[in-house]
Specification:
The chain is of the alpha+beta class and 155 residues long. It folds into two domains: 30 residues; 119 residues, Protein of unknown function DUF192 (Jelly Rolls), CATH 2.60.120. The strands form two sheets. It has a seven-stranded mixed beta sheet. Strands 4-7 form a two-stranded antiparallel ribbon. A hairpin with a 5-residue loop joins strand 1 and strand 2. The N and C termini lie far apart (65 Å).
Length: 155
């Protein structure tokens, strides 16, 4: 490669490196703490991204290939209503925890099918959905009736 070509590539590469590093830092800052208190007296903590607007809720965890065991995504719908989710373009099998406005878990859809367009209903009006890696709820003994603690939920 000639020197003029390298002089044009180097600034572009530097800019790309900066963007990648900055995006990672923004992602880390966007995580919030959420805890689940089980009826058995255990407390499990997670770091979650919170999807608060239509664009973030529509994107969800689509196209991701992995997620750390202690992380998830909390969907804030802004009002209590029946909701339906799906797994289109989502490669990760997930547990979906449908959560009432008071923070109690109404229903758990365990081990959802990646890439499926089948709708998964809340079964009742809920304020939020928490998505965790598939098998997490069973492994940690999380069940309907357990309480999710996060500033989104009122007591």
């Amino acid at each position: 490669m000639s020197l003029p070509v390298l002089s044009r590539i180097r600034p572009a590469f530097s800019a790309l490196t900066f963007l990648v590093l900055t995006a990672g830092a923004v992602y880390a800052q966007a995580l919030e703490t959420l805890s689940i208190a089980t009826q058995g007296g255990q407390r499990q903590s997670f770091r979650v991204e919170v999807a608060r607007n239509d664009a973030d809720r529509a994107q969800g965890l689509m196209f991701r290939r992995s997620m750390p065991a202690d992380q998830g995504m909390l969907f804030d719908f802004g009002r209590t209503e029946p909701v339906s989710m799906w797994m289109q373009n989502t490669y990760l099998p997930l547990d979906m925890l449908f959560i009432r406005a008071d923070g109690t878990i109404a229903r758990i859809a365990a081990n959802t099918e990646p890439l499926s367009t089948r709708t998964i209903s809340s079964g009742e009006p809920v304020l939020s959905v928490l998505e965790l890696n598939a098998g997490t709820a069973a492994k940690l003994g999380i069940k309907p009736g357990d309480r999710v603690e996060h500033p989104l939920f009122k007591r």
